[in-house]
Every structure is written in C-alpha cells, then in structure tokens.
C-alpha cells in the first residue's frame, strides 16, 4: 500500500507542480513540439523494467485528444499494478477530452485551474484545488476554462482503463 501512495504522490507532483512560462514550454514538457490536428495514442518508446520504481514519460503511452488534451497513460497492467491505473493529462485553454465512459470509477485531482465538467448530463465548474469523483459507466468530459494549461491527474482503481469514446466534447462550443 505504501508503494501505491508513493507512486500517486510522485505522479501528482510530476503532473501538477510544473510552472508554466509559455504554451510552447508547456507542450514540450509533455513531449509535444506542436498541437496535433487529430487524436492519437503512441505506445511507449522504452519498455518499463518491472524491477524499477520510477515510471518515466519514455515508459508511458503518450496521447492527444482533440480538442486540446495531451498526456500520458499508465495502464496498470503494463506496470505490474494489480488494481491501479493513472492518467496524467494537460488540458490546454478550451481543451479537453471527447465525451467518454470507463467501466470503472475515476477520480480527478487538480491543484490549480478552472475546469468545466459534464458528468452524467450535469454541468458544473470546479476551481482548483479539488478532487472530482466520476462513477463507473457514466458519460463525462471536461474543458479547461482558464487562460493557462491545467494539469489533471486521473486515477482509476483497476489495472485497465476501459476507455469508450461516445462522441465530441459537448462543452466545446459553450
């Protein structure tokens, strides 16, 4: 259990403690030189050594979700976690993921920023710091409503994230 706490603390610090000088610095810190035109997932550059304790960006799946969410996925089964997966996301201003569900519950941790959510049809705005609970199987999406990028750490209590995209982000044109 203490290894999980240490890992989550590390992921939150890595994903949320960064200061942002400019959009370019922010994008490059997540392994992007420019904003992509469409969504994608790229497998890790280097396979994770299961005897190691630090999971670095080169060991993680990198993704981009249109419009304006980029990050890394630590699918638990790829890192020998029995009941844990983590998503480190950076939502650019007016960016967020498509409407989607997971078969399992999810928790978001955000230290700073203003984010609008839609969860199971209910819309609300959260101002960091906060934690948001997302029940299993519930359609959800979010959109960064601030002027600077927002780091969102998603924690899922199983070693598979079971992502099911339902369509475009309904907050995109609001």
Brief descriptors of the model:
mainly beta, 2 helices, 13% helix, 174 residues
Report on the structure:
It is a single chain. 13% of the residues lie in helices and 37% in strands. By secondary structure, the protein is mainly beta. The radius of gyration is 15 Å and the shape is globular. The termini are far apart. The model is unreliable at 5-24 (pLDDT under 50).
What low-confidence regions span 5 or more consecutive residues with pLDDT below 50? 5-24
For the largest beta sheet, what order do the strands appear in spatially? 1-2-3-4-11-6-9
Q: Tell how many strands the DSSP assignment holds.
A: 12
Structural class: mainly beta
Calculate the mean pLDDT score and round it: 86
For the termini, the CA-CA separation is 42 Å
Strand percent estimate: 35-45%
Secondary-structure map with pairings?
Elements: H1 2-16, H2 23-29, E1 40-42, E2 61-65, E3 69-74, E4 85-91, E5 99-102, E6 106-110, E7 114-119, E8 122-127, E9 130-134, E10 140-144, E11 150-156, E12 163-167
Antiparallel strand pairs: 1-2, 2-3, 3-4, 4-11, 5-12, 6-9, 6-11, 7-8, 7-10
In short, what is this structure?
With about 170 residues, the protein is mainly beta. The chain has helices at about 1-15, 25-30; strands spanning about 40, 60-65, 70-75, 85-90, 100, 105-110, 115-120, 120-125, 130-135, 140-145, 150-155, 165.
């Amino acid at each position: 259990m203490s290894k999980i706490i240490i890992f989550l603390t590390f992921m939150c610090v890595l994903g949320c403690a960064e200061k942002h000088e400019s959009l370019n610095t922010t994008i490059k810190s997540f392994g992007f030189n420019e904003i992509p035109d469409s969504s994608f997932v790229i497998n890790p550059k280097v396979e994770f050594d299961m005897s190691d304790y630090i999971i670095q960006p080169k060991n993680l799946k990198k993704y981009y979700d249109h419009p304006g969410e980029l990050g890394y996925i630590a699918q638990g089964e790829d890192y020998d976690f029995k009941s844990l997966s983590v998503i480190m996301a950076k939502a650019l201003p007016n960016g967020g993921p498509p409407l989607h569900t997971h078969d399992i519950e999810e928790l978001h941790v955000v230290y700073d920023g203003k984010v609008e959510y839609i969860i199971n049809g209910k819309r609300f705005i959260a101002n960091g710091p906060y934690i948001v609970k997302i029940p299993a199987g519930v359609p959800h999406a979010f959109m960064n409503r601030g002027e600077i990028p927002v780091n969102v750490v998603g924690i899922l209590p199983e070693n598979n994230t079971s992502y099911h995209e339902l369509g475009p982000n309904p907050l995109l044109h609001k």
